[in-house]
Design goal:
about 180 residues, alpha+beta, Peptide Deformylase, two-stranded antiparallel sheet, 7 strands, about 30% helix, binds zinc ion
Length: about 180
């Protein structure tokens, strides 16, 4: 394991647009293993490759978490949304790259998308509610977008400052805060 560092908001690498993968080969499977390691290490249930500084359109979700369908990992490569519902809702999201903050984000309630799975097979899916939200959140990462971008410019500035403080605190103490 390379034990990749998780990138935190403020790092310009999180703003780069990820490139499509040609095919799901051993290199991509290895990337999935690294991503799962980071996701568990930092206690998340979804991760985009962008968050560890790998600019490939690769996402992993841990569906053993009760909010997501299925019970294993979901491996997503080159996701493409073909349809999004006009109906939206606003829910608070969390993000490993935005520690200690919950941010309300408006997202489509449903979507349809295609992607390649871990066997390089093209799949189609129809997602709703929390699942659709998680997918939209992770796909934003692949386009260099973070949930704090949905805040007003002033609130975004405040959020970035708070993240900076949390990271300093974390460095000095080794533990996470629960500031909201
Ligand atoms: Zn995130």
């Amino acid at each position: 394991m390379k034990d990749y560092e998780l990138l935190i908001a403020g790092n310009p690498e999180l703003r780069r647009k990820a490139q499509p993968v040609d095919r799901v080969d051993e290199e991509v499977l290895e990337l999935f293993r690294e991503m799962i390691h980071v996701m568990h290490r930092d206690e998340g249930f979804g991760l985009a490759a962008t968050q560890i500084g790998i600019h490939k359109r690769v996402i992993v979700l841990d569906c053993s978490e009760s909010y997501l369908p299925g019970d294993g990992y979901m491996y997503i490569v080159n996701p493409k949304i073909s349809w999004k519902s006009e109906e939206t809702d606003i829910q608070e999201e969390a993000c490993l790259s935005v520690p200690g903050l919950g941010v309300p984000v408006e997202r489509s309630l449903e979507l349809k998308m295609s992607y390649l799975d871990e066997n390089n097979d093209e799949k189609l899916l129809h997602a709703k509610d929390f699942f659709a939200r998680a997918l939209q959140h992770e796909m934003d990462h692949l386009d260099g977008k973070l949930m704090i971008d949905y805040l007003s410019p002033l609130k975004k500035k405040m959020a970035l400052k708070r993240i900076e403080k949390i990271m300093q605190w974390k460095d000095s103490d080794g533990e996470e805060t629960s500031i909201k």
